[in-house]
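Example record for the data management plan.
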Amino acid sequence: MKICIVIPFYNHPGAIAQVVDALKPLDLPCRIVDDGSDEASQGVLAQIAAREDWVSVQRLPANRGKGGAVMAGCDAALAAGFTHALQIDADGQHDAADVPRLLEQAQRHPQALVSGHAVYDESVPRSRLYGRYLTHVWVWINTLSFEIRDSMCGLRVYPLAPTCAIWRRHRLGRRMDFDTEILVRLSWSGVAILSMPTRVTYPADGVSHFKLLKDNVYISLMHARLFAGMLLRLPLLLGRRVRQRMQKVAA
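Corresponding structural encoding:
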């Protein structure tokens, strides 16, 4: 396995240095994908790259959304010879102390996607918590499985070859709908999804780019697309679940 870090970044100048410092002990190359940020944020990234030789900045000329940034970073990582990419958000919500456990699980199961399963403290907004649970229910319906425990957590380890193949075959949502859609489509393709609990906090002075109305519309349309896709794949998915159940019984 050859692992790198991919951080989608858009105007988080106050948090990114702390995120990078927390990841430094991992001794992994890091690619920050600047998704068309403003000049102040570009300046912060330039300072980080100048002092940290393990960090590089991949700048996108225009904002593509979080999904677009992740796809660009993963495509570049695969082209550079990496087999896996650790995705972590730039806003400082994820606890980097949990990352080694995800990487260890990825080493044990290199063909699987290892995703964080968010464990929240009291800082989480209740509206976001309820919205996430609704998405979880739709994901369980669309995969006919409880395998994906948290499809919205931005901390995960991708096996790059099968992951990049998904968006070359399908047009995926590029904004806040991306994290969920890529997991569902990977599950449909037969990639195992493994979950690890990870602590998530919402800093009081944090910056969120989640647009309540616009992103909820994107997410609703994504669920509708995935439900239609599930119906088309229903015989295949049911057959897979039956075989898995029989294998468990035989074991």
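Summary line stored alongside the record: The first strand starts at residue 3 and ends at 9.
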